[in-house]
Design goal:
Length: 268
């Protein structure tokens, strides 16, 4: 008999798809036995359809990764859900690893490891299993949740943050901070479940959109202490030669613009 308590559903965010061929790359060992929910952010001329009972498709005409995640949360039905993007490649039996982690640990959120496509671990993960605080490094396809606990505690992604939103970064961090505040710290399970290209948009620390978003993020959590963060960040970018001295005033202004935009949107 199947263990309904540990059913798993993969919540996939993608854009402008009109066929399911991309799933072959994501699941090289096959996806016929997996429960998939795909949110395809698109337009009315490019819609995705599924004839399979285990592949549910939602065509959304809104933009923003956090909106996609929230829509998936609303329509998911399984107890365990894993967030996924369309550029991750899952390892053989990854779902067994996830189910085992939830069977062994009473946690609302469990995170896992990712390997880069060049064979290294994506970041310096904790040395062993346990609750951890490195929330700013966790990738979407590393996050598995007990959906019922997340829904019951009204935890959602902040739709002002994430790719396609006003502030194009930090959606996972904010989500996990809310999990930590309302439930418990995410639990880290030291097993690799997928591979991913070695860089993400969050690695572009000197980019204008990164500074704009991170300044808004730091104001959200730390209010006027954000200016101390900004000074430290600019010194870091200068010291590591990611920007020149001539670029520093422009970067300062971009960060201030992010803070002001967040204040305006949230009447802060």
């Amino acid at each position: 008999m199947q263990d309904k308590k540990h059913d798993i559903e993969i919540l996939i965010a993608t854009m402008h798809r009109n066929n399911l061929d991309f799933l072959k790359n994501m699941f090289p060992d096959g996806y016929e036995q997996l429960q998939l929910l795909i949110v395809n952010q698109t337009d009315k001329d490019t819609v995705l359809e599924s004839n399979s009972k285990h592949i549910k498709v939602i065509n959304s005409f809104e933009k923003g990764l956090s909106k996609s995640r929230n829509l998936a949360l609303e329509h998911a039905t399984s107890t365990i859900c894993l967030f996924a993007d369309d550029d991750v490649i899952f390892l053989n039996n990854f779902e067994t690893t996830i189910k085992k982690a939830f069977q062994e640990n009473n946690a609302a959120v469990i995170t896992f490891q990712t390997q880069t496509t060049d064979g290294n671990l994506f970041w310096k993960y904790p040395a062993k299993n346990g609750f951890h605080k490195q929330l700013n490094k966790i990738l979407s396809p590393e996050i598995a949740i007990n959906r019922k606990e997340i829904i019951a505690n009204n935890i959602r992604f902040d739709e002002q943050f994430g790719l396609g939103a006003t502030f194009e970064d930090s959606e996972n961090y904010i989500f996990l901070k809310e999990v930590s505040a309302k439930l418990q710290m995410p639990y880290f399970y030291k097993k690799t479940i997928g591979t991913h290209p070695p860089e993400t948009s969050s690695d572009q620390v000197a980019s204008d959109k990164h500074l704009y978003a991170r300044a808004a993020l730091n104001y959200k959590f730390h209010k006027n202490l954000v200016y101390l963060w900004l000074i430290k960040m600019l010194f870091f970018l200068l010291r590591t030669k990611r920007i020149s001295f001539n670029e520093a005033p422009k970067k300062w202004q971009i960060a201030l613009a992010g803070i002001q935009k967040y204040k305006a949107l949230n009447h802060a």
